[in-house]
Amino acid sequence: MPSFRSEKSQADHAISQKLALGKGRHDNKNDGRIHSLGTARGYGNSLKMVVGYMKEHRLGDLRNLTEKIAKQYLEERAIKVSQKTLDLDRQAIQMHLGIRLEVFKSERENYLSTRSYTSAQIERITWAQSERNGLATKIAHCAGLRAHELLTIRPADERQASGHREWSNERFSGREGERYTVEGKGGLIREVMLPRELAAQLEATRLTEPRQVTDRGINYIQHYDIGGGRSWSQSFSAASQRELGFSNGAHGLRHSYAQERLDELQQRGMTHDDAKATVAQEVGHFDKETTEAYLR
Fold this sequence. Notes:
Shape: elongated
Largest sheet: 3 strands, antiparallel
Number of domains: 2
CATH class of the largest domain: Mainly Alpha
CATH architecture of the largest domain: Orthogonal Bundle
Order of helices and strands: HHHHHHHEEEHEEHHHH
Helix content: 40-55%
Strand order of the largest sheet: 1-2-3
Number of strands: 5
CATH superfamily of the largest domain: Intergrase catalytic core
Structural class: mainly alpha
Distance between the termini: 42 Å
Strand content: 5-15%
């Protein structure tokens, strides 16, 4: 391999040596070649990261990559990236070296899997918060909300869910209550459901006039006097630390919701894959694999 200065040049050259476009991938899947442009892009990005690692540790260029260095690299990456990214990195290195490497497990996803709270823990945290923040915690848990989404909640008859998505009729299957909408990432408006008793508590905080609030530099129009955004998230973490001696963060409530709903739907006879797809929509995702992090 010629000596290249940039990570991209080295990665591009390595990929060019393995390209076999035009050949059927399924008929040649074990030939150690790359048969699609998508795979070439993915492997190229992974190898660029490898080159950067080798430069940082003064290990030479991609020609100097060995099985030992590869294992050290993957062990360090396992702390930082998802399982999907880690597997792609391993496959790219395997292709470059022409060897098989052991499968490393993402420690980042192991961390994510511990973020859920039990119902008893959530109840303790709620009682340790102010009334408005405690109510927000109950709502976030029952509907799987992000911190900022609490600031956007409105009755479903006042605002429709985004029409550019195809919503499943299985959402909220097995649950009864009142439907609301929230605005999530990318401006996606989705329906959520609250138990009627909790909805009544929410309605008791309805503002006479909506107010503008700013959270993390973004303006929201709030219709209820409940906690939300960064201040609520900080309140949750502080209460968790006081009551439980640890905090997994307010985002852990979304993990709790997703895991509880998956169990509910499967107990109603839904397959794991269909249940995961339903939960994905309920928490504001349309990628089932993104939701997987909440379920482990």
